[in-house]
């Protein structure tokens, strides 16, 4: 008898988002991927004939779930599921024990509650559903039944009454460095000794057992006995400061007199010095020497820098409908479609990594239809467009006339902004984008260091125009020929009218739009830096771009009362990037 085996590993979002450093975020993503691969390997070792339907096994970053077709007698299915689950849990404990023994080797005592925090963290749900009918009939059932299994999972009450882990915020702190604070009775000190450097735990930080695994994961995955059996672990994952400085670092590296690898530089130190600030963290003499050299080169070469970077998150739109076969011409092709889309998403994941690399940024996770990446703001719009085009190019023409799309959340933030806040905001913008008609949108938010927030949600394209291209074109026109003061004046006038929007009758809206267009034309002429005989053409071109942006916003299903607000919000985001980077277009 054949059966459909579906397994998920949780938690996902908390494990990744509960991060203070990009290394924490990367480690959380890597660990989840590794545990999924452990489950797949265990299943294939237990049953060589098992067929993995999705995800594609070549994907570097695995999602937290997998589906397989297994064979055997019905009564043996339960044993198979328990063995795969046990293999994943055992690997989780192996990682914890490996790291704890390294700590014990350096004189760190094992905390009393270490095993309890590790033992209760993972939530693994699985089901093996006998295939009494066709694949297309049984697949929806296995998804539904797994949801039912998750709905009745056991609940374990953890009594955590002490000072909390700085990463999870829910577990008692068990390891600390520096001064032992109140309510840390069970915590043990981690000395700066051997392999336990400051890179893993800074002075004043305190973490629990799960936080320790994320922080020290590199000591396990780079161990000689382990590293050859896993996907290479990035032990020096770029920081947010590094991403913000990335473009400048590559420009410096290309200089003839410079021979400094970007990773040999402390980007936060460079940004602090360039902005006349103080840098209090400890760095080695060699890193400080390299960093000061980079500061001098940036200043001598006249390279513009920014303390801002961007986060992009997305997942495929309507993936539930795609996987259920709702969008297929022929439901009987569902199994072939699953195999096909698994291969296609695997290929897209590789393309995504090729798009976001080098001076552009770095991929944290690319698991097919899920993606998380850090981008230098200079390359933000080209990267967004290329990712979206690559996803739409996924070929499903043998199964449907429709094309695939995704909705994204984008956040531009200062490198000192708490990472967990930025990641949560990115997910929030992604959810707002998915609420748009037909989805296929992106939400973009600017988190200024001053605390101000600007955000807009827009469609990717309108009337064959890319929003990202339009954004670049508007900024280019403003930078070349116009003072941006006219936008602030116009925004003030429009917002005053918006306060009385309810008093304006519907039949007067078109007249009002004409009045506003006449006013912005007048202000554009005044703000244009070109000679009188050249102004008309430049103003006309900018008018066309502004009008197209308005139409795009209307197409994005915004309510009339919010159109101008969204218009100025998006425009101010672009103006901020232009002023900050000087090279956004």
Description of the structure:
The protein has 585 residues and is an alpha+beta fold. It folds into 4 domains: 2-227, 2-Layer Sandwich (Alpha-Beta Plaits); 240-301, no CATH class; 309-459, 2-Layer Sandwich (Alpha-Beta Plaits); 461-585, no CATH class. Helix content is 49%, strand content 14%. The protein has a 6-stranded mixed sheet with strand order 9-10-8-11-12-13, sandwiched between helices. Strands 2-3-1-4 form a 4-stranded antiparallel sheet, with helices on both faces. It is globular.
Helix content percent band: 40-55%
CATH class of the largest domain: Alpha Beta
Main sheet: strands, sense, barrel: 6 strands, mixed
Question: What is the residue-mean pLDDT, rounded to a whole number?
Answer: 86
Distance between the termini: 60 Å
Structural class: alpha+beta
Looking at the overall shape, the CATH architecture of the largest domain is 2-Layer Sandwich
Number of helices: 18
For this structure, the CATH topology of the largest domain is Alpha-Beta Plaits
Q: Which homologous superfamily in CATH is the superfamily of the largest domain?
A: CRISPR-Cas system, Cmr2 subunit, D1 domain, cysteine cluster
What would you call the quaternary organization? single chain
Order of strands in the sheet with the most strands?
9-10-8-11-12-13
| Whole-angstrom Rg | 27 Å
How many structural domains in the coordinates?
Answer: 4
Structural shape: globular
Unreliable spans are: none
Number of E-type strands:
15
Note the beta-strand portion.
5-15%
